Amino acid sequence: MALRAGGPALALLRGRLRLPGPGARGHARLGRSGAAAQPAAEEPGEDAEVSTRKKTFAEVQTERLDQAERTVLIKCPSKINEKKLLQYLSSHGNVKSHFFFENRGISALIEFSEKSSIASLQDAVGIPSASEHHVVPFKSRLFTFTLKNPGSQRVEETPLHLSPQCHIPVKDLIEKLCLADSISSQMYILLNEYQLTEENIKLRFLACSLVRDFTCAYFPDSTVKPFGSSVNTFGKLGSDVDMFLDFHDTGKQASKMEKGPFEMEYQMKRLPSERLATQRILSVIGDCLDNFGPGCVNVQKILHARCPLVKFSHQPTGFLCDLSVSNSIAIRSSELLYIYGCLDSRVRALVFTIRCWARVHGLTNSAPGTWITNFSLTMMVMFFLQRRSPPIIPTLDQLKELADEKDKHIIGGYDCSFVSDLRKIKPTKNTETLDVLLGEFFEYFGNFDFRKNSINLRKGKEVNKPESSPLYIWNPFEQDLNISKNVNQPQLEKFVAMARESAWILQKEDKTQQIMDKEPWGLAALLIPFGKSNSSKMKNRMKGIGSETIRSLLDSLKLNNANSQQKAVGK
Question: Which parts of this chain are annotated as the region Disordered (predicted)?
Answer without folding.
Answer: 23-53
